From TrEMBL:
GO terms for molecular function: serine-type peptidase activity. GO terms for biological process: proteolysis. This is Dipeptidase E. Belongs to the peptidase S51 family. Keywords: Hydrolase, Protease, Serine protease. It comes from the Bacteria. It comes from Actinoplanes xinjiangensis. It holds the Pfam family Peptidase_S51.
Length: 218
């Protein structure tokens, strides 16, 4: 699996070019599935913000990039319909577009649905994460980013070996000083990235793609 881990989505030409490189084809020839599940775990998200993500009307606007086709993959539904139905949907897609919200909630449903177990068998799949959709691939998100009350802790999937502090400078509580304190508490490799920055990960190799501000810790 190839990762494009963003804070705010495909927000500039450099990030879009990185996406096309990962896909190995033009966006207009690729099939995408949108995953809004993380939104339901965060108190700041609503049915309306989930719809905006799906309709391409959010600030991330991933679904509106001009895909050949776009579908919805709601992880909460998958355990009730059987893998024989939904696994082919995922295998036939080129890219998963994963919205933000709460990363621990998303992690829970990735495991419960079986998607987390399926992903290692999809080497050509591209995962495009926004905020929590990126953070879920890390080992931990830090207590400050856990909003789901039922989360047992701040651990997530650990597909990559670093953590992500998103929305650098986008909110008063997301300053560089806040990121430094967060990273010190984690005590592990991490990146703080703003809305104009993304991280690509292919075969374990990390590349920073940025027209903005970012910092690496550890």
């Amino acid at each position: 699996m190839k990762l494009l881990l963003t804070s705010g989505g495909v927000t500039n030409p450099n990030i879009q070019s990185a996406l096309v490189r990962l896909l190995g084809k033009p966006i207009g020839e690729a099939t995408a599935l949108c995953i809004p599940t993380a939104e339901y775990g965060h108190p700041a998200c609503t049915p309306f913000s989930a719809w905006r993500f799906l309709a391409g009307r959010s600030s991330a606007s991933l679904s509106g990039l001009g895909w050949k086709s776009v579908g919805l993959l709601e992880l909460l539904a998958l355990p009730t319909i059987g893998a024989e139905r939904w696994v082919p949907w995922v295998r036939e897609a080129d890219v998963l577009l994963v919205d933000g919200g709460d990363a621990t909630y998303l992690c829970h449903w990735m495991r419960e649905s079986g998607l987390a177990d399926l992903l290692p068998s999809l080497p050509d799949m591209v995962w495009v994460g926004v905020s929590a959709g990126s953070m879920v691939m890390t080992p931990r998100v830090g207590a400050a980013f856990v909003e789901w009350e039922a989360a047992p802790d701040d651990r997530t999937l650990g597909v990559v070996d670093f953590s992500i502090f998103p929305h650098l400078d986008a909110f008063p509580e997301n300053s560089l000083a806040d990121a430094e304190r967060w990273a010190a508490d984690l005590g592990a490799p991490a990146y703080a990235i703003d809305e104009q920055t993304a991280l690509t990960v292919v075969d374990g190799a990390v590349e920073v793609v940025s027209e903005g501000r970012w910092t690496r810790f550890g």
